[in-house]
Write a structure and sequence with these properties.
The chain contains 14 helices and 4 strands. It is mainly alpha-helical. About 6% of the residues have low confidence.
Length: 299
Amino acid sequence: MNLTQDIREAFTRRDNALNQLIIINGLVFAVMIIIRAVLHISQADGTYELLRRQLELSSSIPVLLRHPWTLLTYAFMHQDFFHILFNMLNLYWFGQIIREYLGDRRLVSLYILGALAGAVFFLLAFNFLPVFQPALGLPVIGASASVTAIIVAAATLLPDYTFMLFILGAVKIKWIAVAVILISLAGINGGNPGGEITHLGGALLGFLFVKQLKAGRDLGRPVVATGSWLSRLFQARPAMKVTHRSPATVGRPAAAAKAGGPGATPPEEVDLILDKISRSGYESLSKEEKQKLFRASQQ
């Protein structure tokens, strides 16, 4: 199986959002490296900079109005190998937690909303805070805002979940999130203030996302709805097929769908399970509760 087939297969699976996000970031990074090398050899470096400006997020509002798509595309661009490496490692480690407990759709929602929140913080800071206005027009790239949103969301959902870190040993995820936020605050007066500000926007979004989810409000619904609309828009309509049913079977599928299907977990029950995880950790769940949480993540 060649590389193209591997990528195609990864995107045909419906339960593969984490790998898909990592692959998209990797593909964008690889394509930009190839384009940059080709244009450099062709002595057309200016063309590469022009292309890059179409994808990076500028702090200048007039530039943003000409390139509104950069509110999202910047979150798939990276500066160098170590930039993408650390972002993708964190996305993989913490994204697995979100995917396991909240499902693929909410992982994607967190990534998108984290990028948008980071962009809003970035634009507000550089356009309204005097300390940053001398650098107005400075661009920003990277998945860090999205990744920070996922880290903080995971820490808000499971604060006592433990990671085994090199040298440090067992560390609770809540302290990792605190360290990420403090490092971002400390870096605001450093060499990459724009990037650090986007981290803070992503962190706030991740915290609010889980808190609102526990309160019964899913901030990711507009993202899921938009994704479903785009999927229907680009998906070919299947040919109409006439089937015949016996009178005894008419209405049964609709009734089953209305009931949520066999084995469906009510949202209220999911909220109670998540509250129990926050109080006592995942290990405190019974086998039945773990199964209910898993089924809910697949809905």
